[in-house]
Design a protein that fits this description.
By secondary structure, this protein is an alpha/beta fold. It has a domain at 49-101 and 148-180 and 222-256: Vaccinia Virus protein VP39 (Rossmann fold), CATH 3.40.50.150. The protein contains eight helices and seven strands; from the N terminus they run H-H-E-H-E-H-E-E-H-E-H-H-H-E-E. The chain has a seven-stranded mixed beta sheet, sandwiched between helices. Helix 2 packs parallel to helix 3. It starts with 34 loop residues before the first helix and ends with a strand. Homodimer. GO terms for molecular function: carboxyl- or carbamoyltransferase activity; S-adenosyl-L-methionine binding. InterPro entries: CmoA, Methyltransf_25, SAM-dependent_MTases_sf. Belongs to the class I-like SAM-binding methyltransferase superfamily. Cx-SAM synthase family.
Length: 256
């Protein structure tokens, strides 16, 4: 079962439609995972990231394939817990310890509530507020970075991936989803254009697209697939494969 993003609809006092950038602003602030974003996040990510539902569904399938008994499964940058719950759904009868980690207190508080509502008490899931680059990882079989690494400063990315690789048990995997950049300028611009067309088809205006892009500038730093591939191998992964891509959004699997 794929976790539903409609859980938020149970709370009538919580706005669900993303209109954060619908009004013109003289100063567009840098993107932050604050209360305003938390309140619209399921709508925002579904309408902004093509293929998001497919990625979440496949995180469940990949967890079913690679999770190992009595290991940890980490969702790093868990936001509202969609990937966390996908891992839980993929475990079946395997007894694993699921840990979701995010450094946004607003995200963590909401995620804790949603996970508690949707998880039987006998299943071990913890949602923790922390910076992922300072976590002491326990032996793990599945680690997810679902559109999270791109928000970490580039100079900190290798060290985090090295620590993940060291924590993975033999046969363990990292599932890494990212917005991509492309070395060929023509292809790069084409993928941006197609992504913007996708967002228009989801009801976003040109103003919303422009202001959101401005808010993410210097906050979300995308890299090319070859850059990710090289860094992952440098960090200690034996192989890296691209298993999903739609425009400039992709998901990779890296093997211990």
């Amino acid at each position: 079962m794929t976790p539903s993003n409609n859980t938020q609809d149970k709370h009538a006092d919580t706005p669900t439609t993303d209109t954060l950038y619908a009004s013109p602003s003289d100063i567009v602030e840098g993107f932050r995972f604050d209360d305003k974003v938390v309140s619209v996040f399921p709508d925002m990510i579904q309408r902004s990231v093509p293929g998001y539902s497919t990625i979440i569904h496949m995180i469940s399938q990949l967890t079913a394939r690679y999770a190992q008994h009595d290991t940890h499964c980490y969702d790093l940058g868990c936001s509202l817990g969609a990937a966390t719950l996908a891992m839980r759904n993929g475990l079946g009868a395997k007894k694993c310890h699921i840990v979701g980690i995010d450094n946004s207190p607003q995200m963590v508080a909401r995620c804790q509530s949603l996970v508690k509502e949707d998880t039987p008490e006998h299943i071990d899931i913890r949602i923790i507020e922390a910076d992922i680059d300072g976590v002491d990882f326990k032996p793990a079989s599945v680690v997810v970075l679902n559109f999270t690494l791109q928000f970490l400063p580039i100079e900190k990315r290798t060290a985090l991936l090295q620590r993940i690789a060291q924590a993975l048990v033999p046969g363990g995997v990292l599932i890494l989803s990212e917005k991509l950049a492309f070395d060929d300028p023509r292809h790069h611009e084409l993928m941006i254009e197609l992504h913007h067309n996708f967002k228009r088809s989801q009801g976003y205006s040109d103003l919303e697209i422009a202001q959101k892009r401005q808010s993410l500038e210097n906050v979300l730093i995308p890299e090319s697939f070859p850059s990710h591939q090289a860094r992952l191998k440098e960090a200690g992964f034996s192989g890296v494969e691209l298993w999903f891509q739609c425009f400039n959004f992709a998901s990779m699997i890296a093997f211990k």
